[in-house]
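ok trying again, last paste got cut off:
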Amino acid sequence: MDGLEVVRIEKSYGATAVLKGLNLECRPGEIHGLLGQNGSGKSTLTKILSGITRADSGTIRLGAKEIDLKTPQLAQKHRILTVFQELTVLPNLTVAENLFLGLEPTNKLRMVSVRDLHKRAAEALKQLGIENLNPRQMAGQLSVAERQIVEVAKALMRNPYVLILDEATASLGPKESQWVFEQARRLAERGNIVLFTSHRLEEVERHADRISVLRDGVRVLEVARGEVDTEELVTVMLGYKVEQLYPRRPHVRSTRPVLAVDHLSVGHKVHDVSFTVGEGEILGIAAMPGQGQRELFYSLYGEMPSRGDITINGQRVRLRSPRDALKAGVCLVPEDRKTEGLLLPLGIGHNLSLVILDRLARAGIVRRRREREEIQPQCQQLRLPIDRLREPVGSLSGGNQQKVVLGKVLLNQPQCLLLFDCTRGVDVGTKAEIYRLMANLSAQKVGMLFYSSDLQELVNLCDRVAVLYEGRLIKVFDDHELNEEEILKVAVGLNQAQEPITLSHKARNLP
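nice, full thing came through this time. structure:
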């Protein structure tokens, strides 16, 4: 069997060297985990192996043969297929059309046979163990997690010899992530190669046979599974020791609600949900993908119509638009920073100041000196490069992009902050900064509603965790009850003999 070997690969963008003579070997029959901060060179390496980007120098070998991956088509010819974190599913096509894009079955007239297309798609999904996707459904109607499953299925259907998973589980819950790694293990057991990157260290430690760590464009560590612990991996990735990934803070027991939701329903997705978020409290929301969490958050930001009562600081409000939410002191950090949180061609400074233009403008003209005065403290707090304010946000690493989203939101001085999977796809160093920021906001009495697809985050950051299942609030775990395994059991519906509950400031005080 042939291994995949990267030899002395170099890549620079202008004066910035991204890969500096990188060497990496992936063996047949193994799952190889790739770790590193944003900016370490992981994404660039992935793009080179996918044929999207050309290396400046170096060699790529598949077995004894040197291969030239100058286009994605050539990479696919060598059966190297990549699933990226940034989705490429086409929203105006059905699930079936996306799965068979370029491989559509045709009839005698050489026209696409829609009947065969849907039949084959249904068979392929069944064979892969995917039961909840309708081949005829428009991809644009799917959740981010469901679209990611389509991406993975599409790659698997093309029989890859080398499967590259670039943060492919970032938007997935535990059940869906487990499915991805089951498919990866099946490939490896057939002698194929799986190379995957993830910012979820526990995934890498659990599933990778070998782990390579990149830092500043070179490989700084390669170990077999179990040879080093999590703390050592983090230290190697960052180049320094993180004393405390999850900041210590007292559990909040405020009885004064910043946000109170009573009998809230959103379309057919959220049903009769009630809860409160107290001053300085971080209330976690745990849910498998598609259980109504997105609809809940976006309705509280005025993006989706809802029924029920919403109270902010004791005042009942109607949130018919994001403008209403911002006026009430409610801010959202959205799920997809690139399409919902940022204007990628604009600079860091312009993205940050978008939300405070009314404070900056005089006679319709933005006062640039005032703009810099307003955003500079935010840049310092978030460790954003103050000397690069005019650079397009799209040129930043994923971690720095997420910091810009957070900075923009915080300039609105929120009283209630809605954090929707805000650490998805960012490196461990940026995560630690976000965690510290959340602790600081809690100390400033900002209430936070925090959804994360990472149960470890919920357990370590939240004062309480509420579990949504099929759009209903099923159980609330208090601080002394927080446990990943127990939360997961409820989230996947294992305790459905229990009646759904409501948690309202009218019914009880916060713990």
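cool. The CA atoms of residues 217 and 321 lie 44 Å apart. The first strand starts at residue 4 and ends at 13.
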